[in-house]
Amino acid sequence: MLKTILPTIMLIPLAWLSKNNMLWINSTMYSLAISITCLPLMNLSCDNSLNMSLLFFSDSLSTPLLLLTVWLLPLMIMASQHHLSKEPDSQKKLYITMMVLLQTFLIMTFSATELIMFYILFEATLVPTLIMITRWGGQTERLNAGIYFLFYTLAGSLPLLVALVYTQASVGSLNLLLIQYWNHPSIQVWGSSALWLAYMMAFMVKMPLYGLHLWLPKAHVEAPIAGSMVLAAILLKLGGYGMLRITVMLNPITNFMTYPFLMLSLWGMIMTSSICLRQTDLKSLIAYSSVSHMALVIMAIMIQSPWSFMGATALMIAHGLTSSMLFCLANSNYERTHSRTMILARGLQMILPLMAAWWLLASLMNLALPPSINLIGELFVTTAMFSWSNLSIILLGINIIITALYSLYMLITTQRGKYTYHIHNIKPSFTRENTLMMLHLTPLLLLMVKPQIILGTLY
Amino acid sequence: MNMASAMMLLSLTILLVPLINTTNYKSNLKPYPDYIKTMIFYAFMISLIPTIMFIQSGQEMMMLTWHWMTIQTMKLYLSFKLDFFSMMFMPIALFITWSIMEFSMWYMHSDPNINRFFKYLLMFLITMLILVTANNMFQLFIGWEGVGIMSFLLIGWWYGRTDANTAALQAILYNRIGDIGFILSMAWFMKNSNSWEIQQIFMLDFDNTTLPLAGLLLAATGKSAQFGLHPWLPSAMEGPTPVSALLHSSTMVVAGIFLLIRFYPMMENNKMILTMALCLGAITTLFTAICALTQNDIKKIVAFSTSSQLGLMMVTIGINQPHLAFLHICTHAFFKAMLFLCSGSIIHSLNDEQDIRKMGGLYKPMPFTTTALIVGSLALTGMPFLTGFYSKDLIIETINTSYTNAWALLLTLIATSLTAVYSIRIIFFALLGKPRFSSLILINENNPLLIKPITRLLIGSIFAGFIISNNITPSTVPQMTMPLYLKITALLVTLAGFTLALELCYLTQNLKYPNPSTMFKFSNLLGYFPFIMHRFNPLTTLHMSQKSATMIMDLIWLENVLPKLTAKVQQNLSTSLTNQKGLVKSYFLSFLITMITTLLLFNFLV
What we know:
Chain A is mostly helical. Chain A is built from 17 helices and two strands. Chain A has helices at 2-17, 23-37, 62-80, 89-111, 115-124, 126-136, 141-171, 190-206, 215-222, 225-247, 251-277, 282-303, 306-337, 353-366, 373-388, 392-415, 431-449; strands spanning 50-51, 57-58. A two-stranded antiparallel sheet of chain A has the order 1-2. The longest helix of chain A is centred in the C-terminal third of the chain and has 32 residues, at 306-337. Chain A starts with a helix and ends in a 10-residue tail after the last helix. By secondary structure, chain B is mostly helical. Chain B has a domain at 144-512. Chain B has helices at 2-20, 32-57, 84-107, 114-133, 137-155, 162-193, 198-203, 210-223, 232-235, 241-250, 255-262, 264-267, 271-293, 298-318, 322-349, 367-381, 387-401, 406-431, 448-471, 484-487, 489-508, 518-524, 529-578, 584-605; strands spanning 61-71, 74-82. The model of chain B has no long low-confidence stretch (mean pLDDT 90). The interface between A and B is large, with 51 and 46 residues.
């Protein structure tokens, strides 16, 4: 694992020592090289995990997320170029440093063997993200968003620390590879339910579960583009990853503790996607659509069947790439019209036809067009939910309709119709932006050919 | 037989060539639209070989080509089913697309994005063929959603127009409602048969198949615009006319019926679903025929007649005659595509005028289109020995001699006679009488790109029914004998429709009642359906999402219960405790509480 972590850390001196005109190119190329060196991790010769050392391991659940993380860094760097073009060079370097730090923490989080290390790094990711939101965000609301982001996540995860300390004291180990052999807690004691809640709440907030999701739209909307991308693509998936890891050891209690959360997710999924129908703010729409998609992941993890676990993993990867791409597209609109309001940037297809093609593809991915991996994820989750309870198909079906509606509403409002006069002299789309979209879309399309590699441990 | 499968795959792959060649195509050879059209022609010719071999030998095939993935116990293949239905439908779809492509070269010649238009049509054709040849539900779903998205893109082709965008969104919305049914049955089959391969599903004997079949019926309702989910089809006429001809009459909209035909081995054992299909089809065919009666937009009339014919196909499914329904799909494709091409020719010649009240007397300036339109309309009404006769007459006879739901049968018969009424209305208003269009318009229909495709489809509309029904083996035993009055019912109701309509047309040609009757309003306003469904439903949903989801839940409750409440409590506590206000009592109280808590904790814990 060090061969990924150390080069990533070395990105910081690279950024600071680069000549100012080579800053972006150097860091992009170098991080892209890192992400390519990570690809062999996919080659898991057998079902076992790849134990790199006592501290780090990777298996078929964490590898796709790990690769998503390393893949996203060059994309983030590419996306931020225009946003930072007016800042002084030291600020640019600081910004890259923050992204790299976040990247390092994330890599270590996804590959940590010890739960307590996972916890520490999970918390550590908050710091660079917070700095990115509150320092480089667009408007003054960024401070409020930062506070929401920090306190929701912190307050949610403090019980997890207590639970981990308790487990360490009673079991003697927090090693993820050993923990499945843990003597399962009995169902009768109310304390074990509290333990379950303590374990799960941190991840539920991070996902986020409906009701605990208020930080997400705020943070996503106010964050700079790289922040939005990493939040939507990876930080939410930390929650899913943690839940997938932890549910293995909480098994008998999960069976009856899940009901309220399943209900809340089913309901929240529809509520959040119907909020999307009334959004005027492009980034907020994408943020709420993330909440609705993540509700599907929560349900899938709660169902605890092989199909649902596979669906959850596939959906996490698919959503990571799709929503990150949508944020990039929203940002490209923002950089031209200087507003996130959808109605101010309509009819763009007339002026930016290639960008309209990216919009179309991203929206189609978001509404899970077959055979995209988004569909594979959603279909697996739907099937698992259907076999759990036949009636759930009604709510899931409504959500499918609303998802299609808001995705196309977004597409039609921004791309179709007559263009407005104030966008007469906007800039054409840059090669950088088109490359960025293509780099998002290529993995999505390539994964269609072989979706097995993102189906997680149970495949 | 190996050659047949290879040829079939070849004709499928040929279609991919222009898509792959988009960027490196040399435009000095011939224009890109022409290139696509030629490729489709090749694909059509090649696909005829396996079809002829199939007709000769009757051997069905299934091809597993590529193992996609294995999920636990379920294998997903890229598999093609080359049976009667796909073998017969493929050449027909290719033939019609070929003709429509050629027509589009004339119709869309001034469009700056004509290359993209052709690419879209080609992509649509590919997804449609995926749908038809799919052997597992997942692959079928790929085609199913693919045609939906392509229809979205093609309806919204003139994306500057609000109406086009609305219609496109409407199409997707109604199709998505149907998709829920599809996903439901996929989930059900996954759960109960652990397979999505169609022949494996049929192998098993399920206890109760009502739920998945209801799902499939819902899917077919959405895609084939059956009653309840029908409004998207007439709205889809916002798209260019070639799109209406290809997608919304001959290929895409029959996908729902095709799905039910695919699943007939399962459906024929479930009487409840059959009855539901019968009633749904009967209501659709009558309702949309009534709506067609008073429309003035030529494309809308043809669209409603499509909807009515789809209802007739659904009725045929309902009386458990899937092969007949399939025959009607095949024959209907020819004359309906031609009717749209004719109306396209008229619309284009009259400078985009679609209102039949502003046409009239077109038989003189456009004799060829007139001929084609009249032959198409007669074929549609089931004139003996034209294409429509071979399927429609058979369907009506089978209905007449069957023992099922008499009410549904009656509705179907009425709808059949109404077919004649709206057909004669187009002919009467658009073609006969005196011209009512601007006299400055130059009408010229002597363009080979217009004449050739219509001629081909015209020949198809006359002979295709004869050829197809002569070359297929009867799968169900036809009714050999029946009383004379049952035999000629179809003809009689159609004739009655004709005579009545002709008289009515003469009556209403100039006269306009100051206050239209309720019946007229019902028909003209599409049964008040759009007013109820398209205003009330979105309004409630959007109100709910604005008021309850956004305002009450997100902005008020969730905000106030957790973050704001915490902040408020902390703020109040700290202000009341930190500022020195001389509140000695509360200071002592807080001191006391702390002491007691500490003591108690120590007492119990240590």
